[in-house]
Amino acid sequence: MSGFRQHFMLRMASDWVPRLAFCLALSACIFGDSDVALAQASTGQPQVGTGAPSVPPLDPPAERALATGTLSIGQWLLSPTLDLYTLYNSNIQSSPTIDLKSSGFHYHPALQAELDTGIYDTKLYGNVDSTLYPTQNELNTFNKQAGVYETYAPLRDLTLTTHLDYTHNTLANVVITSIPTPITSPATPPPEGAAGVVATQQTVVNPNDNYTATVTAYKEFNRAFLKLGSTIAFTQYEMASTSGTSPNYYKEVYNGQAGFWFSPILYAFADAIDTNTIPSVKFVSNAYLTRGGIGTAQISLFQAAIYYGQQGTAVDQGGGTAGGDIYGGTVFFFPTAIWNMSLSVDRLRNRSDITGSTPGASGLPGLALSASSVTSASSTQITTIAYKSDYTFSQQTSAHIVVSDSRIAFLDMSRVDNSWLASAGIKHQVRDDLSLSLDYQYTRYISEQPLTSFNRSLVTLGAHYKF
């Protein structure tokens, strides 16, 4: 392990300067001095990857509201929550060969403590996430998480954050994604409704510990933003492989996002992410994804965005390379004040000379709605069409629906796989501190390859209580 750590430190010291310069150059190249009229759009911080971007800010940054809460210890505000729900899962591991099904019970207590002085905002959090299956005890999960999220905002338009996180997972994905997704925690909650729906990938029982450190700088300009970040993560498996298929590994990640309005109704955006995966055995691999595009403000009942970019993977010591275009777009439709929907099309091409047995042939990025990962060793063209909708019945009740199809065509082969996802849910706020939810998700993977196709149904009925 000492050689592993030494290699990691040397690699990090030699690479951080060009990686950071790459992010800065990408973001700076789209900036200019723009004086545009105001338009109606939402403000948010962007995520790197495929799909629709977040819209750059239009209004001057407002003074951040201080945190509020009913429970406290000294100056610390406490936010304990409890999630309980029953479920039925027809294919717990999303496996084409092992059909394990069971009803179950899930519990998720969480606690966040926050100290907010206006300039400094400190969040400490911890939670336990466990699912129990009475008839499949070997698949019971006991996940736990703890961390600290520190925000420093010396100016209204400048925010610096540091995030340290420890997460223990009972299950591990069959294929490690080349570009990691953002860490979710009580300090950084996932989106609700249709925006938060993702397909569950195939998993195996392999408990693992993840240690992550992230630093981020976010700056707002005149109807523009710039965000730069870097992450170091270490994953250690209970059953680590020495063959290179599931070794312990470091990841070092560098990312940047930017956008600005160049007319009253049009904005430009760009984002990029670069990841080094450094395993304890075998070869180091590098993966990147970069894109740029144009979006619109809401015009009548519609809003839209299109993008084009590149993604690629390279494995050290002659392990091979892969890469290709990414492009797509999203159209949003707002027929009423209580109903919104979107239709998106995303395409990823990957031409690869990496062999499937080469360590570093990890999963391709940007396939959140696919039921199964596709490795960078596959020469494929993946087209995903997704429809999402949110409907608000009242101030207490809302519903969402997602339907998607990912068509995975293998280049130079006649094989075509399809991944289907259908999800629907309803949420009802009983009181300010109590909400109920009912969700159903169906995934199906269809392949001509033997022992590859599978389907999965998941039904959950639960309650969320905030003390």
Structural class based on helices, strands and sheet pairing: mainly beta
Unreliable stretches (pLDDT < 50, length at least 5) are 1-47
Count the domains. Answer: 1
**Rg to the nearest angstrom?**
22 Å
Task: Walk me through what this model shows.
This protein has 467 residues and is mainly beta. It has one domain (2-466): Beta Barrel (Porin). Helix content is 6%, strand content 56%. It contains one helix and 19 strands. It has one helix at residues 2-28; strands spanning 71-73, 76-89, 102-116, 120-132, 141-155, 158-173, 203-221, 224-237, 249-261, 266-279, 285-296, 302-315, 320-336, 339-352, 380-392, 397-410, 416-431, 434-446, 454-466. The protein has an 18-stranded antiparallel beta barrel. It is globular and about 55 Å long. Mean pLDDT is 87; it is low at 1-47.
